[in-house]
Amino acid sequence: PHRLALLVPFRERFEELLAFVPYMHSFLSKKRIRHHIFILNQVDHFRFNRASLINVGFLESGNDTDYIAMHDVDLLPLNEQLDYSFPEAGPFHVASPELHPLYHYKTYVGGILLLTKQHYELCNGMSNRFWGWGREDDEFYRRIKGAGLQVRRPTGITTGYETFQHLHDPAWRKRDQKRIAAQKQEQFKVDREGGLNNVRYRIESRTALSVAGAPCTVLNILLECDTSETPWCTFG
């Protein structure tokens, strides 16, 4: 039987985490999806790097899981018809543009995306060049296409933009959307060199936690940055 590694990139959003872990454990258990929740907690002093955290989560998720969900901590699925099963036919975008409360462009693959481990490796994971908020999933869409894979999306869901609860409060938690040095030009390029093969990191600690009775593993992750390659990884 298949087992899902739920990979949740994370930094300092504990109130969202306290809601997310028990909710997702209950949601997936009801659907009889075998799963393990990994909180990928970035504890270095560089800017947030969602894609690198997902690469690390993939590498650290162990051999007892055979597919992953890249899952935002602030997005909760409300419709039990949403499919989290093994995406054999190719990447399955749960938070599709027709359903996501905020992002509606047709090449969007952020929020919640399922892939078999084999397909993620075929894409060489995600680019490590995206520090700060945004754009890494747009680059990943091009990797998916380049690997000859087709993104599939939910059908028959009638709840529209009410399909998910979005927990993020922009007034309380501002996103790091600065564009530093050559970052603005770089963010539109496809990274043909990097990904799973060159993510640099150290695991500071690995802790099994229970949140309101729901189990998860917290990985405290120290990412490394080559400032000659991506000077925008620091706030400068």
Architecture blueprint of SSEs:
Elements: E1 4-10, H1 14-30, E2 35-42, H2 50-60, E3 67-71, E4 75-77, E5 92-93, E6 112-116, H3 117-122, H4 136-146, E7 164-166, H5 183-186, E8 201-211, E9 214-223
Parallel strand pairs: 1-2, 1-3, 2-9
Antiparallel strand pairs: 3-6, 4-7, 5-6, 8-9
GO molecular function, one term: metal ion binding
Subcellular location: Golgi apparatus membrane
Family: Belongs to the glycosyltransferase 7 family.
Descriptors for this entry?
236 residues, alpha/beta, Spore Coat Polysaccharide Biosynthesis Protein SpsA, Chain A, 5 helices, 23% strand
List the helices and strands in order: EHEHEEEEHHEHEE
Helical proportion, percent range: 10-25%
Question: How is the biggest beta sheet arranged?
Answer: 7 strands, mixed
Which radius of gyration do the C-alpha atoms yield? 17 Å
Number of helices: 5
For the record, give the distance between the C-alpha atoms at the N and C termini, rounded to a whole number. Answer: 48 Å
- Helix-strand makeup class: alpha/beta
CATH C-level class is: Alpha Beta
Low-pLDDT residue intervals, each spanning 5 or more residues:
none
Tell me the domain tally. 1
Question: Spatial order of the strands in the main sheet?
Answer: 5-6-3-1-2-9-8
CATH homology superfamily name = Spore Coat Polysaccharide Biosynthesis Protein SpsA, Chain A
Shape designation: globular
Strand content: 15-25%
CATH fold description: Spore Coat Polysaccharide Biosynthesis Protein SpsA, Chain A
Number of strand segments: 9
